[in-house]
Amino acid sequence: METPVHRHGATADPRSGATSRAQAATHENAPGSASERGSGSKRRGMSTTALTLPVAAAALYGLWTAFVDRTSGSSLGHAWLLGLIAAVVSGVLGLALVSVQSTLITEVRALAYGALFGTATGYLYSISHTTGPSILESVRMGVVLGAVMFVVSLYVFRTHRTREPHGEHRPRGARRAQGAHRAHPSH
User: Is Transmembrane there in the keyword field (predicted)?
Assistant: First the structure.
């Protein structure tokens, strides 16, 4: 059975005693393992859902941008062009975030989602009025909504640790097991 400890190259598993890197490498090349199955149509470690959600969100964001721009007085062609550009940019940024999120610690990942959301909503706020809000109002709105998204993301990531791609950073049992084998440097 492949555990998160084996997947990420750790040298010891607190549940089964010491495990060497050679044993973990042999385990990864076992029949039916991910390295032997091949990548197929999916990219390394990314599910179809992980690719579909940012693309769908980008499409919705592009349509919403076109709608907001059109209702604030722009021509139809300008609104659709702006919506297309917004969809492409937000889609690329969303896919980039999804592809690197498993390498980020919880706080940085929540900050990245907050920054992406805050920037997107601040931009929508800036194009929402015919007279146009000031830059400071748009930045303030983006920062406030980005901070809200940061807090919500952090809450979700911390309360659903089993769903995180990299699992718990330091499980409680592992800390206790390490403390029993070696003395703390301050003693």
Answer: yes
